[in-house]
Amino acid sequence: MFDGRSGVAGRLSAEGLSLSGALPVFTQSAALCYRIKCGAPEILLITTRRAQRWIIPKGWLINGLSAPETAAREAWEEAGVLGKCGTESLGRFAYVKKRSNNASALCLVDVFPLFVQQMETRFPEAGKRRRKWHSPEKASAKVSSPELAALLDGFGGHTH
């Protein structure tokens, strides 16, 4: 797992992997959007725009915003949620992104917890994605990335 708390994380930096020359490496930021319902955490998953696979909101780092601020912005744009975003990463996962010029890139995604306080029906990508709440275990089973699945499965909610 690409977890920020493991010894592996030091070897999985964008800079270190870029030097390996295999693929270009980019850093992204993601929001693990959650709520507490009946005393248990629920995680919000959204679909990708094209393939309709289940993911969490994520995107490229935004100039002038920190990684957690970027995660919160992506949560608004892609899922229509507002809330309190934690400043400490829960961990990191990696995936290979196929870009429009058909060149692949390795993306390292830092995941930040976002306690959902408000959910809107009108938001920038409302007509392009579906969204659904799941238990951590069910959310884990729905995503294709094993590293993200491990982060979701191990999520127990945070102080909000």
TrEMBL record:
Domain (Nudix hydrolase) ranges: 16-156
Entry keyword annotation includes Hydrolase: yes
Keyword annotations from UniProtKB, A to Z: Hydrolase, Magnesium, Metal-binding
Cofactor(s) the record lists: Mg(2+)
Entry keyword annotation includes DNA repair: no
One family name in Pfam for this protein: NUDIX
InterPro entries recorded: DDP-like_NUDIX, NUDIX_hydrolase-like_dom_sf, NUDIX_hydrolase_dom
Record-linked CDD domains: NUDIX_DIPP2_like_Nudt4
Gene Ontology terms, MF aspect: metal ion binding; pyrophosphatase activity
PROSITE patterns tied to this protein: NUDIX
GO annotations of cellular component type: cytoplasm
Record-linked PANTHER family: DIPHOSPHOINOSITOL POLYPHOSPHATE PHOSPHOHYDROLASE, DIPHOSPHOINOSITOL-POLYPHOSPHATE DIPHOSPHATASE
Official protein name in the record: 8-oxo-dGTP pyrophosphatase MutT (NUDIX family)
Organism (species): Ruegeria conchae
Lineage: Bacteria, Pseudomonadati, Pseudomonadota, Alphaproteobacteria, Rhodobacterales
